[in-house]
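sanity check this record:

:::
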Amino acid sequence: MTPIVKKKPAGRYSWQDYITWPEGERWELIDGVAYAMSPAPSIKHQSIAGRIYSRLEQSLAGKPCTPLIAPTDVVFSAHDVVQPDVLVVCDPSKLTSENVQGAPDLIVEVLSPATALRDLREKKALYERHGVKEYLVFDPLALYAQRFCLGQDGCYGEGDLFGSQEALPLETFPGVELKLWEIFGVETPSEQPSRSKELK
């Protein structure tokens, strides 16, 4: 059964509308369209997001970058406000006491059935348009990750796919990689594959 994505009544909403909505409701704005976020994410979804956040926090310790985890508002513009699962901001001027103002350096989304299409279409286009350097998508069901890196032309391209038995190197943070078998909580590979050289 195809999940039904809720929307506010037709109209173009802004940040000023967003901050008046009840705290018990979670919404995102993309091009002024208000999308309801899915109900409480699954345990698997949250476990994956938590592991990604933990690995980034450990790997970036001592660097001038701040990893954050949902729910954190990222305000791209008056009509674009989202809550990525995990993000990293390296420009302290973008951090306020309440939200992130502008594009993070890295954004991670863990797919849920109700929001997967939006993550791969509307949100990918939004992140590309606002200059997010690196966008990672994790699929908890199919056990793969996809990495999109902003090219010199300002576009993501098709992206690189990584299986659950591979390590995913981060372009934005050289030397940092995510071991996907650890992130997905699956069996450790007997011989660790490396894609770093292959993808250069």
The CA atoms of residues 68 and 85 lie 8 Å apart.
